[in-house]
């Protein structure tokens, strides 16, 4: 792991396709390191799979880099539908883990201390895990999402830049 590159904070990204275990991996890592976790699900919607990124940068990464408290409104989900939810405040952590699809995008490579790629090889298994987690009502959305993320990862080359690959 590289030294802190987001101000005094060590930034770790846990990325990979949906249903690959990123959230569980990030939780274990955070418990081990005493880290704070931010999920890309706190920002994404079905209609905006990755275009919400400037909000995460503005509301979380920039304040933390400047040594200030980060504040943002979470996207929350009910029955597979997103809505603007509760406000979350994050004091400047020693270690910040961002987990979720596109968390390790190339645009933040220079601020990452570690990029972890999680991927179960079988797309069908990943789909069934995601449906089990989020409910049958999101299966159609998840099929569209899987097609989107294949394209996203092919362009971003996230896995190729990963420091750790967990399959």
Automatic annotation (TrEMBL):
Gene3D superfamilies: P-loop containing nucleotide triphosphate hydrolases. SUPFAM superfamilies: P-loop containing nucleoside triphosphate hydrolases. GO terms for molecular function: kinase activity. The keyword Transferase applies. InterPro entries: P-loop_NTPase (IPR027417). It comes from the Bacteria. Keywords: Kinase, Transferase. This is Uridine kinase. It comes from Actinophytocola algeriensis.
């Amino acid at each position: 792991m590289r030294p802190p590159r987001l101000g005094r904070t060590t930034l770790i990204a846990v990325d990979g396709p949906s249903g690959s275990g990123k959230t569980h991996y990030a939780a274990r890592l955070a418990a081990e390191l005493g880290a704070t976790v931010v999920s890309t699900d706190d920002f994404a919607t079905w209609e905006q799979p990755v275009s919400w990124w400037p909000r995460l940068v503005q509301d979380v990464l920039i304040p933390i880099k400047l040594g200030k408290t980060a504040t943002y409104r979470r996207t929350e989900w009910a029955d597979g539908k997103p809505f603007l939810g509760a406000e979350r405040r994050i004091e400047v952590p020693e270690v910040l883990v961002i987990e979720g699809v596109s968390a390790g995008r190339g645009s933040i490579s220079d601020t990452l201390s570690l990029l972890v790629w999680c991927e179960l090889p079988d797309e069908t298994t990943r789909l069934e895990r995601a449906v089990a987690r989020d409910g049958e009502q999101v299966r159609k959305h998840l099929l569209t999402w899987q097609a989107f993320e294949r394209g996203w990862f092919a362009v971003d080359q996230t896995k190729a830049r990963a420091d750790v690959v967990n399959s």
